[in-house]
Write a structure and sequence with these properties.
- The chain is an alpha+beta fold.
- Helix content is 30%, strand content 9%.
- The chain folds into two domains: 5-65, 3-methyladenine DNA Glycosylase II, Chain A, domain 3, CATH 1.10.15.40; 72-150, no CATH class.
- The strands form two sheets. A two-stranded antiparallel ribbon has the order 1-4.
- A hairpin with a 2-residue loop joins strand 2 and strand 3 (118-121).
- The radius of gyration is 18 Å and the shape is elongated.
- The mean pLDDT is 85.
- Bound molecules: iron/sulfur cluster (3 copies).
- One iron/sulfur cluster binds at residues 74, 79-85, 114, 119, 142-143, 145, 147-148.
Length: 151
């Protein structure tokens, strides 16, 4: 599920106090979304009254931070752990042909695997998008909860 600026904004305190160096919470939300600011710059959110919002923002931001080499982002909070992406990823099929039959690949030479009910990146450098095939998006298409996206 793509993260929108509103998702970030609605979890900020909404005080428009400027302590983060921005004129408004909305402009700080835009900065966070683009990875240009640190959540700690908003000192009010460190107050106990904003614990839930802070946690929510940390989850959103940690997901954004994973979008490095390939642009792949996994939003763990949306992941049901179904394993569709692991099985459908062509890298899994190459590493373990058994994966094509719908079984979890035994190899560790994968892009990701499901650990404790959540998909985790094992080795992003194996993703086809780091090489020739920038168009591969099979994992995104097979995810029923829209937990994977590319930016
Ligand atoms: S410091 Fe926090 S509450 Fe104040 S304007 Fe920035 S984001 Fe909004
Ligand atoms: S983009 Fe393709 S190669 Fe990369 S993780 Fe997804 S399915 Fe696998
Ligand atoms: S397909 Fe989606 S919900 Fe299923 S394990 Fe992968 S990321 Fe999680």
């Amino acid at each position: 599920m793509a993260v929108s600026v509103m998702q970030v904004y609605k979890n900020l305190p909404g005080l428009n106090c400027g302590k983060c160096g921005e004129d408004s919470c909305m402009s700080f939300a835009v900065k966070l979304l683009h990875g240009e600011g640190k959540l700690e710059q908003c000192s009010p959110i460190l107050n106990s009254g904003y614990t839930t919002k802070k946690k929510e923002l940390e989850e959103i931001i940690s997901g954004l931070g994973k979008a490095e080499k390939t642009g792949l982002i996994i939003h763990e909070k949306f992941c049901s752990g179904c394993g569709n992406c692991v099985i459908a990823c062509p890298v899994s099929a190459m590493a373990d042909p058994g994966a094509m039959g719908g079984k979890g690949p035994k190899s560790r030479d994968l892009v990701f695997r499901v650990i404790n009910g959540k998909v985790k990146i094992v080795d992003i450098s194996r993703c086809r998008r780091t090489g020739e095939d920038k168009r591969c998006r099979i994992c995104v298409d097979v995810c029923p909860t829209k937990a994977i996206e590319f930016v």
